[in-house]
Amino acid sequence: MSAIDLTHSGPPAAARQSRRSTSWITLAAAMVSLIALLPLAFIVWVGIQTGWDTVVALTFRPRVGELLVNTILLVLLAVPIAILLSVALAWLTERSDVPGNRWWSWLSVAPLAIPAFVHSYAWISLIPGLHGLWAGVLVSVIAYFPFLYLPIAAALRRLDPALEDAAAALGLGPWRVFARVVLPQLRLAICGGSLLVGLHLLAEYGLYVFIRFDTFTTAIVDQFQSTFNGPAANMLAAVLVACCFVLLGLEVIVRGEERYARVGSGAARQQQRARLGRATLPCLLLPAGTALLTLGVPFVTVGRWLLAGGADVWRWDEISLALGQTLVLAVAGALLATVAAMPMAWISIRAPGRLQRLLESCNYIVGSLPGVVVALALVTITVRIALPLYQTLFTILFGYALMFLPRALVSLRASIAQAPVELERAASSLGRPPLRALWSTTIRLSAPGAAAGMAMVALGITNELTATQMLAPNGTRTLAMAFWSYSGEIDYASAAPYALIMVAMSLPMTWVLYVQSKRMAGR
Amino acid sequence: MSFLELRDVAKHYGPVAALAGVDLTVESGSRTAIVGPSGCGKTTLLRLIAGFEAPDRGRIALDGKLLANGGAAVPAHRRGIGVVAQDGALFPHLTIADNIGFGMPRSAEKRAEHIVELAYIVGLDKAILKRRPHELSGGQQQRVALARAMAMKPRLMLLDEPFSALDTGLRASMRKAVAELLEDAGITTILVTHDQAEALSFAGQVAVMRDGLFSQVGTPRELYFQPRDRMVAEFLGDAIIVPAKIADGFAISPLGRIAVDTAERRDVARIMLRPEQVVLKRTSREGMSGTPDMLFGEVTDSEFAGSVCTIAVRLLNSPDPPDAAAIGNTPLVLRKTGMDVPEVGEIVRLTVTGKAHVFA
């Protein structure tokens, strides 16, 4: 009798329940995306208020064309160079027997600990005549290539060597195995990393100010400083948003809908490292040269300024205040962004579809807006609608969450993709209700990814400049703000301690990122 | 001239010897199985033959051509040896058709037709070709892996536990299908497995491996009935091993006077019987009296499991026992057909058919 009862009522109830939990997650993701759309809605609203003729006049003018060319060239040059560099470094450190590969692997991630504008500051004080597009490409690649190196190295570590063996047994030489089996499987990592780097290039401000290279973001900040929230700044922002649309569209097309979890059963074999033999020395030049440019230059320059400044530049009361404020903002903002990214990451892997693509793009677009645009929107909204929230901790954290959501999302999505859905189903079949099944399998397994995402966000907040300046409560002076104001007065020596502290603070977070990416691959 | 020859092949991983000097000869067009417990080195051996790794020592030659000699080895992609891995190792980023056609040049004539033909040979439906590996069942994935390996017309096919992920029913039928298919194509095959039944039924030559060495190499029949030692005997199936006094082609043992497979031996040694050589006949306690040269036992346990049942028989009398105490306490465990199995407590008469094997 009881068996009949079970078959009668069991499955439909379970199905209903799982559908309900999916839709709750979808709802949460939609809510987050809607809130994230606020700054975008703000731009549209300003555009409507401005009137069509003014919009056309402000958008179609030589200055915008010039900025567009600059920005496109920057992305088209810097991203491919960064991909090449990252793939080569990742292969050398993960799959070859290059001496000291663990060291080189860490040194390839370490540049993340140095804020982009500190890289720029280092280069401009080393070579004062460094200007223009190629300077921009150089410093951009140096500052941002680890965003590509990290996912590519992690993906390389995780590849099932049985596939490469199979390809070799089918008659393919090492180079063709790499091109036809390894490279296609790095696609997800390369796409994700390129998008991240591209969006950073569009949003970066401080880096390009130092080397006097004009992009949309620097132009928007200029406009804002001269005319506050005038329509010209907003129309430039609109074009920038269009650029982000293009990047996102490209990534979605190239990424495709592959499944990247391992097919088949059993544990993957340990990978073998390629023997470099006589090529070892030339191969060593790449990581060594990269480390010299990305780490050597900033450390030598900052060191030089510190020596020149002596004990006078260490104003401890000022520094400790800035340090405390930066820490609080970074940790709180990282938590908020990661929690907000969770539902989105889950549905993008488990329930992909048109709605999810749409929601995800919303998050990316907002995350790719320069800090100043998000800040501008939040300033105006709080001033007009919710004045008590103007320049409060809530508003600045909210702004951070909007800006850094994609960072949390990319890491979360990649790690959820690694947790096969079968495990969640197994947990459900072992009697866990859907949400607890999710918790005990996918969330537990993707925890390293979530931690990596949080570290990324905290890192971003520590080094964030423009939005912090506009949104933070009165009297806030973070490390980045202090650094910027000193270096703006060409007091490079006084700025040096702040650069050093930012790097020192970012290092542990970068280390966490590095370790987690190793652990994710099971080592 | 044999087709594949391995001489003193050794491989170490750090201090661990995965292979400690292995010799093997495989005839052209034959099927060989390498069987052993996990960690015995059989997969390492396969990887050395495939060329994924180079041996530390020894020679590997295929069809008269040297593939590996000490550390120098022809890389895998120049060997033309087909490999089917345990889980198929299908490329997740390619369709089934592209997986099968992976080893063919893109410009190859009639590439598409050839792919369809291969799919047909391994028993895959044409509709499956547009799908991705993760949409296929385990059995289908294995068939794709086989078709992919066959596409480049290998002279030698290596199968690395290809059936272990399949369920029992499918496993036997896949095994038979693959064996026939490769035989029809005239491809020499080496199968690596930890499943002795699979090894015995698949191959013409079986090599039992343990701790990086071959314990014995021979036909399935030789290995099963004339194992070299206790380990081989017990690895390949249940065995009854008892001490016996041997003379003139007979053994005097706790199981009575039994014919053995050697006429020269004249000493005390251990002999081995397969349980299926012991025939049971129902009788009663009354039937035991007055027949001192016959062997009787009492059924102490009986486990029904469908076609084959396991029963335990305790010997009641034992003519001329050299080791009577030990045998008397340990019941013989026998597998019998499910039809008409004696119940617990019944008395049976035991007789031995065929010859017992004498261990060295």
Total strand count of chain A, please? 0
Strand runs of chain B, count: 21
Radius of gyration of chain B (Å) = 25 Å
Report the sheet with the most strands of chain B, covering strand number, pairing sense and barrel closure: 6 strands, mixed
User: Largest sheet of chain A at a glance?
Assistant: none
Number of helices of chain A: 24
Instruction: Summarize model confidence as the mean pLDDT of chain A.
Output: 83
Distance between the termini of chain B: 31 Å
Helicity level of chain B: 10-25%
Q: Largest protein interface? A: A-B, 29 and 37 residues
Give me the oligomer status.
heterodimer
Overall shape of chain B: it is elongated
* Helix content, binned percent of chain A: over 70%
Shape of chain A: globular
What is the overall pLDDT average of chain B?
A: 86
Ranges of chain B where pLDDT stays below 50 over 5 or more residues in a row are: none
Radius of gyration of chain A: 24 Å
Structural class of chain A: mainly alpha
* Parts with pLDDT < 50 across at least 5 consecutive residues of chain A: 1-17
Strand content of chain A: under 5%
Summed up:
By secondary structure, chain A is mainly α. Helices cover 80% and strands 0% of the residues of chain A. In chain A, α1 (2-36) packs parallel to α17 (354-368).
Walk me through what this model shows.
The complex is a heterodimer of chains A (523) and B (360). Helix content of chain A is 80%, strand content 0%. By secondary structure, chain A is mostly helical. Chain A has 24 helices and no strands. Chain A has helices at residues 2-36, 38-50, 52-59, 62-95, 101-109, 116-126, 132-144, 146-158, 161-169, 174-185, 187-203, 206-210, 216-227, 231-255, 280-309, 316-350, 354-368, 371-384, 393-418, 421-429, 434-462, 466-471, 479-488, 492-520. Mean pLDDT of chain A is 83; it is low at 1-17. Chain B is of the alpha+beta class and 360 residues long. In chain B, 24% of the residues lie in helices and 35% in strands. Chain B has helices at 42-50, 96-100, 111-121, 138-150, 168-184, 196-202, 220-225, 230-236, 285-288, 324-329, and strands at 4-13, 16-26, 31-35, 57-62, 65-69, 72-73, 81-84, 156-160, 188-193, 205-210, 213-218, 240-247, 250-253, 256-259, 268-273, 278-283, 295-303, 308-315, 332-337, 347-352, 357-358. In chain B, the strands form four sheets. Chain B has a six-stranded mixed β-sheet with strand order 7-8-9-3-10-11, with helices on both faces. In chain B, strands 2-1-4-5-6 form a five-stranded antiparallel β-sheet, covered by helices on one side. Chain B is elongated and about 85 Å long. Classes of the chains: A mainly alpha (523), B alpha+beta (360). The A-B interface holds A 160, 162-163, 165-174, 177, 180-181, 184-185, 187, 258-266, 272 and B 47, 50-53, 75-83, 85-94, 102-103, 132-134, 138, 141, 145, 148-149, 151-152, 165.
